Amino acid sequence: MFRKINWRYSIVSAITAATLFCICAFIYISKADYSVSWILFLGSVLYFFTVATVTVMDNFKRGGNESTVAMVFASHVITILGILISAIVCLIMLTVIDPGTIGFGAPEKVMTGNPPSSIQGRTGGLVFRIMFAAVVLNFFGGSIAGVTIPFYSKRNQTKDDKAPTPLEKRKRVDESGQPK
Q1: Residue 17's closest CA among 79, 75, 74, 66?
Q2: Are 147 and 72 in contact (CB under 8 A)?
Q3: Cβ contacts of residue 37 below 8 Å, gap of 6+?
Q4: pLDDT of residue 5
Q5: What pLDDT band is residue 27 in, cutting at 50, 70 and 90?
Q6: Helix/strand/coil (H, E, C) string of the chain?
Q7: What pLDDT, on a 0 to 100 scale, did the predictor assign at position 178?
Q8: 168 or 57: which carries more pLDDT confidence?
Q9: What is the share, in percent, of the chain residues with pLDDT greater than 70?
C-alpha cells in the first residue's frame, strides 16, 4: 500500500513543515495576545507552502510525470505526519513554557485582548487556538496543496500511464476485455 512512499523524504519534509509552524506557534505562545493571532495563520501558510513545494519537488524527482493519485497520496502522508509532529511539539512547548497551562495550577500565560465572544478557558483560549491551528488549519492547507499541486505539476496532462493508486497495478485491456 505504501510502496511508492519515500519515508525518509516524507519524514524530513514533515519535520520541515512542522518546524516552520512551531516557530510561529512559539512566538504566539510567548506573546499570548489576541492581536498577534495572525502569527498562527502565518505558520499555517508556511506549512501550506512547504507541502506545496515538497510535492512539486517530489514530482520532479519521480520524472515529472508520476501518477496524480500517487502524488496526492504522498502529499497527504506528509501532511498527516506534519500535523502529528506539530501538535506534539506544540503541546510540549505549552507545558515547558508554562507548566500550569495544561497541568495543575494557575497558568501564567493567559490570552489577553480577547473579544467577548471568543472561547474562554483557563488560558483564555490560548491552547484552543494553537491546537486548532496545528491540526485543523494545517490539515486544510496541506490537503489543498496535496490535491491541487499534483494536477498542475504533472507534465503530461492528457494521460496517466502509471499505476493509478499506490495499492495495485492497473491491467490494460482491449475492447474485447482481454488483457494486452
Answers
A1: 79
A2: yes
A3: 28, 129
A4: 79
A5: very high
A6: CCCCCCHHHHHHHHHHHHHHHHHHHHHHHHHCEHHHCHHHHHHHHHHHHHHHHHHHHHHHHCCCCCCHHHHHHHHHHHHHHHHHHHHHHHHHHHHHHCCCCCCCCCCCCCCECCCCCCCCCCCCCHHHHHHHHHHHHHHHHHHHHHHHHHHHHCCCCCCCCCCCCCCCCCCCECCCCCEC
A7: 63
A8: 57
A9: 78
Residue type, 147: V
* Residue 121 grid coordinates: 478557558
Greater confidence (169 vs 62) lies with 62
Residue from 119, 150, 137 nearest 56 by CA: 150
Mean pLDDT of the chain: 82
Residue tagged 485543523 (cell numbers)? 136
